[in-house]
Sequence to fold (371 residues):
Amino acid sequence: MSESKALLELIQESLDDFCQDRKVEFTAISPDLVPVVTYTQDLLAGGKRFRALFAYWSWVGALATSDEPQTETQRRESAAAMVGITAALEMFHAAALVHDDLLDQSDTRRGKPSVHKKFEALHEQSGWAGSHERFGVAGSVLVGDLMLGWSSEIFGNALLHSPTSEIEAACRNEFSKMRVEVMAGQYLDVLEENAAPTRPIEELVGRANRVMLYKTAKYSIEAPLLIGAAFAGATPALLRGLSAFGIPLGMAFQLKDDILGVFGDPAVTGKPAGDDLREGKRTVLVGLTREALTTSVGNIFDEMLSSRSLDAEQIGFLQRTIVDSGALAKSERMMEELADESLSALELLDIDARAKEQLRGLALKVIQREA
Fold:
């Protein structure tokens, strides 16, 4: 079994054990709380685990250059702690997905009902009073909040095994920064979806890039890299080098996500075709499209993007408009350039060769994925 696969199995086992313990605690309070943990555990059972793997291999790579050499016993303890750290990242990511699906009004996640839709269905099937939509909103907000707290709990427990107090402080700082930045990016994303269409066209791509940087690039790639390396006692120079690798890769990651959100195969992505268009997402892809359109066609494009109730024919029109404007081709070129920048930065890192190869493989998977 490969080291990465073994890690993923340990992460899943850790998350399952954690959820089982919480289920026992919640059942003792009231059996009515069981769905809260069940929906959490269901969401934690899937996913690509990119964040966990980037954190782990960054830790492995940084150990070779750390100013804090470890004994074999310390190395084993740190490896066990990394399972907790990476599990915490996955719990945090799942919490963000719960809130993201609610904010975007996405009905599905990985081909299954999103958490707020599960709570809606529970309310409806149980014949309870009131609105099942409002119950779905309330349930998913509370589950997302609970998972955020659980991610901090798992992370804090893992850091009890930090080699030094300085390393513990560095890790906590990176984790805290990640939480703040992703919430800032999430708010900016919501703002863009609801902003007036009269904004200057030349600002659209820049604003979308800012959302992409804070909502995805830093949180999905850079933060896991820095947390893993910090736990190995990485030098400031290495941390800067990892940022140079992680940020352009994270930007490429989101550009790919934007393309899949418009043109992805629902059977592969687990979301309806053109879901980002239906949600009115103001992505870089959309910004590049608007830059290329005439005023009259642009007004039609904006009006349709703001409707939130597009049918298949309207989705098809918007998809063709994006392709014909040249925005899709430009986004793909941008993605390739960012990927090249990231991989070039990776080659300059003074880290363990095996870890560097693993990080390169992960980077290619991020760029080439179809879901």
